[in-house]
C-alpha cells in the first residue's frame, strides 16, 4: 500500500531506475513511479530479465536510446494499471516491451503521450486510453495508439477510435473538424 519513486535516474546499459536480473519482480500493492529516467541501451524506467507482475506503475519522461523506453521485460508481463507520459515520441521504440513472451495489460493510460506501443508475443490490452488525434491499432504482436490517418478524426483524450471526417466539412484533421454553417453532425 506504499509508494516507491525513482527520479532522475540513469544507467549506462539497462534499467535507468530499476534493474532485475534473476527471479523478476512482483508488485502486490501500492504504486511504482519512474520520473525522468534514462538508459543508454534499454529501458529508461525499469528492466527485468525474467518478467514482472505490476499492480500500478507510472512512467513519466523515461527514455532509452535503444528499445523499451519505459519498461523492458525478457519474460512474461502482467500490468494491472500503467500510465505513460512523454513529450518526446518515437514510434520505432515501444514504450512497454516484452521480448518473446506474453504481455497482458489490464488498463493503460496513454492519453498524455504522442505515441504509445505495447509489444509482446502475444500482447493483450483490455482498456487502452489514447491521446486526442490517435486511435487504437491492434495486431497479435502489438497494441498501440497511433495517429489517425488523413481524413479521420478522434476528438477526445482517452478515446480509441479514429472516425472518418463528417461530410460535408470545411476543415478536418486528426484532432478537430469544422462543418459549413447550418449543418449538424451526429455524435455517432
- Helix percentage range: under 10%
Q: Report strand %.
A: over 45%
Question: Oligomeric status of the shown chains?
Answer: single chain
**Mean pLDDT, all residues:** 84
Structural class category: mainly beta
Estimated radius of gyration? 18 Å
Tally of DSSP helical segments: 0
Shape descriptor: elongated
**How many DSSP-defined strands?**
23
Q: How far is it from the N-terminal to the C-terminal residue, by CA? A: 41 Å
Largest sheet: 9 strands, parallel
- Give the low-confidence spans: none
* Element pattern in H and E: EEEEEEEEEEEEEEEEEEEEEEE
Blueprint of the fold:
Layout (H helix, E strand, L loop, with lengths): L2 E5 L2 E2 L6 E3 L4 E2 L4 E5 L2 E2 L6 E3 L3 E9 L2 E2 L6 E3 L3 E10 L9 E3 L4 E3 L2 E6 L2 E4 L3 E3 L2 E2 L4 E5 L3 E6 L4 E2 L9 E2 L6 E2 L4 E2 L10
How would you portray this structure in words?
The structure is a single chain. With 188 residues, this protein is mainly beta. Helices cover 0% and strands 46% of the residues. It contains no helices and 23 strands. The protein has strands at 3-7, 10-11, 18-20, 25-26, 31-35, 38-39, 46-48, 52-60, 63-64, 71-73, 77-86, 96-98, 103-105, 108-113, 116-119, 123-125, 128-129, 134-138, 142-147, 152-153, 163-164, 171-172, 177-178. The strands form 5 sheets. Strands 1, 4, 5, 8, 11, 13, 14, 16 and 17 form a 9-stranded parallel beta sheet that branches. β18 and β19 form a beta hairpin. It is elongated and about 65 Å long.
Brief characterization of the structure:
The protein is mainly β. The chain has no helices and 23 strands.
